[in-house]
Amino acid sequence: MKKLSSSQIRQMYLDFFKSKGHSIEPSASLVPVDDPSLLWINSGVATMKKYFEGRVVPENPRLTSSQKSIRTNDIENVGKTARHQTLFEMLGNFSVGDYFKKEAIPWAWEFMTSSKWMAFDPAKLYITVYPEDKVAKELWLKTGVQADHILEDEDNFWDIGEGPSGPDSEIFYDRGQKFNNVAVDDPQNYPGGENERYLEIWNIVFSEFNHKPDGTYEPLPHKNIDTGMGLERLVSVVQETKTNFETDLFMPLIQATEKMSAGKHYGVNKTSDVSFKVIADHARAVTFAIGDGALPSNEGRGYVLRRLIRRATVHGKKLGIDQAFLYQLVPVVGQIMESYYPEILAQKDYIAKIIKSEEDRFNNTLTDGLKLLDKQIKLARQAAKKTLSGKTVFMLFDTFGFPFDLTKEYAADEGLAVDEAGFNAEMQQQKARARAARNQDNGMGVQSGLLLDVKVPSKFIGWDHLEKTAAKLELVVVADQLVDQVRTGEAQLIFDETPFYAEMGGQVADHGLILDATGKSVAEVTDVQHAPNGQNLHTVNVLAPLVKGQTYQLKVDPAFRQAVSRNHTATHLLDQALRDVLGEHVHQAGSLVEPNYLRFDFTHAGQTSPEELKRIEQIVNAKIWAALPISWVVTDIETAKKMGAIAIFTEKYGKEVRVVSIGDYSKEFDGGTHASNTAELGLFKFTGETGIGAGVRRVEAVTGKDAFAYLEQRETWLQETADLVKTAQLQNVVTKVEQLQDQVKQANKQIESLQAKAAQQQAANIFQNVQTINDVTLVAEQVKVADMNQLRQLADDWKQQTVSDVLVLGTIVGSKVNLIAAVTKAGITKGIKAGDLIKAIAPKVGGGGGGRPDMAQAGGKNPAGLADALQAAQTFLQGK
């Protein structure tokens, strides 16, 4: 076995499969694109779903990748086990309907054992197979694996529900008994058992069945290979470390944390070691996630990030680190991963800024949490309790980020236990809520083979032409069946050449008509999408018979195309203007380009201020009025990058890319249509800005005549406002409105003063009506005041005058009732609490409420019950 670094191992794996004809896929963003079933990219195959489902046919059916992934279903175990990580890299090789077992098995063995590659000792490798998969077992034997190193296991069948599934083979490495955590004669001491000796390092899935919605299985139209090998685990084997954390992927982070700690060192204390591991793991995960556009928040991905940062902060405190520190590990992560992920160092300042802000916020929260924990411990002692409740412990965990173990440790120091069963019950309820709120369809769709083998050529000519006079109809699909002709209804068509743009990158598809040789309309084009092999697939509403093999005229709606093109150009100007104003951290997170408006989503922490939006708008309009020429060129990716073109690297690009340049201002990878000059846009105007998720903002805008119409509407509203406030000149509207606002404020003050005087007069009367019930004095009256604020003012007057022990007042405002109850200190000593009293009487008015022992309030929707509520106050005191 060779001695290799993690970067060497990663590159060796990719190089090996490149030598076998595979294309190397770049590591995709951790934030899934167009896949709502996933919170994070959680495996290498997650980025290949479109290929395995048959929605897209890859240029090369042989693919390999090292895909960064996040899994968060077992965060509590990170640091406590040898192999749990939140962020990990999955090495994988994939065949989409190309090679299968007879190639995948010997290649795996070659990579693991050949002296040119990993050079593992074959005697230390073990294979597991599905018992019914006789072909795989025979191939392993033929490859050279000893019979006693091949084990059958019923669990070796990969199936996550609906979609592709099949048997698999796992490869285990024997690390020797010195690494084991069970005895030699333990029943679990075998490859695949629960032990640390035999380490699973590779899983090869032979995807050959469709798991159908009805639960049955049928052969896949195209068999696939899907493999996964954890880089961290493989590195631990090669570098002969006890756990993943002693490898070169983690140790620099642990060593940097040691320097920031209060004299703590890794490998000395088991408890401290857990903290070092948690910090190293979480530093990697949050760095990569923020680098890919995720931001801390209270929901979804943002909640995961917030939780990871808070867990790391708490473990930092255990190591004696009392200030923000996690952000200082960002450049360390970047240096470790620089060979394959140079973007981390390029964004290190932005990532560190986000993490530090979250750390600072949590350090303040943590102080509040500790105060609450101290209070709960004190209350438990006063009540002679020996255990903190599960709800309390969970609240500390969920609201303040306190891990269960930390609360348990604090409580133990004070001589208290914690209700672990109650905590676990609360945790399960939270998980159930999360599952209910999340789309559970995280498998793959059933593979359809209808268009996978359709190789008919189809050329897009729409860059330069909006019409094609003689396009041959090559393929007709009706109700998911290939047919030779269609007379009516909906159909999908492929032509040898087409000017119709297929929806892509947020730009909607062209609309238009299909005509026969006489010029008669035979179909309306309502949508155009890419078929699995890349052809433009036209969805049409058939008006007259269409026959495969005949030629037709294709006409794109020119007004529709021009309007969409102008708005698409506006998104490019907007994209650059956002970076100019907000910073280079801004990344496109989605877009929609319609003929009458555009929508653009982008990553950014915090709201975009009105001033910033105004500056962005001014920049875009300045570029429009500068009449910048728009040009495009087709080139290879590396040349495009050297040109300075901006790419959305969550998207897949082919060998050649189209680069669109807008003067010297914007240069982007792009496959859409555009105006020929920015002057065609006329005008740009924002119509809305909002947040749509954790760290993602959305702006909407209009251009050209739609922008003019938008401004015209606003001018109409302004004129109507001018008429209402009786000012002839529009420029005087603001001044006039300010004058009216001042008048309203003065009038409200006069009204409040009169209402206060009226309330005082009422008080003089109602405070005389004192009842005595069981040695408790009570004032319970209906009053006429405007709202709850005035009820509270009456209660304050009552307190100052020491009228009675208890006060209950009610008022009817429209169709609603307001109630207030107040109790003096003397009344409280007699066992009367305002909160209990208000809860007892509020149901009479169809409402509810609560409050402190000295003051409580309630609202209701049954005015007719107010007299009964006041009477109920007397009844309540009679029961005391």
From TrEMBL:
Recorded catalytic activity of this chain's protein: tRNA(Ala) + L-alanine + ATP = L-alanyl-tRNA(Ala) + AMP + diphosphate
Residue stretches in coiled coil: 730-764
Primary location group: cytoplasm
E.C. number(s) listed in UniProt: 6.1.1.7
Domain Alanyl-transfer RNA synthetases family profile residue range list: 4-713
GO molecular function terms noted in the UniProt entry: alanine-tRNA ligase activity
Cleavable signal peptide: none
Broad EC category: ligase
Keywords: Aminoacyl-tRNA synthetase, ATP-binding, Coiled coil, Cytoplasm, Ligase, Nucleotide-binding, Protein biosynthesis, RNA-binding, tRNA-binding
Keyword Cytoplasm in record: yes
A Pfam family reported for this protein in Swiss-Prot or TrEMBL: tRNA_SAD
Compartments in which it is found: Cytoplasm
Record has Coiled coil as a keyword: yes
Free-text function comment from the UniProt entry: Catalyzes the attachment of alanine to tRNA(Ala) in a two-step reaction: alanine is first activated by ATP to form Ala-AMP and then transferred to the acceptor end of tRNA(Ala). Also edits incorrectly charged Ser-tRNA(Ala) and Gly-tRNA(Ala) via its editing domain.
Similarity annotation: Belongs to the class-II aminoacyl-tRNA synthetase family.
Protein name: Alanine--tRNA ligase
Organism field: Loigolactobacillus binensis
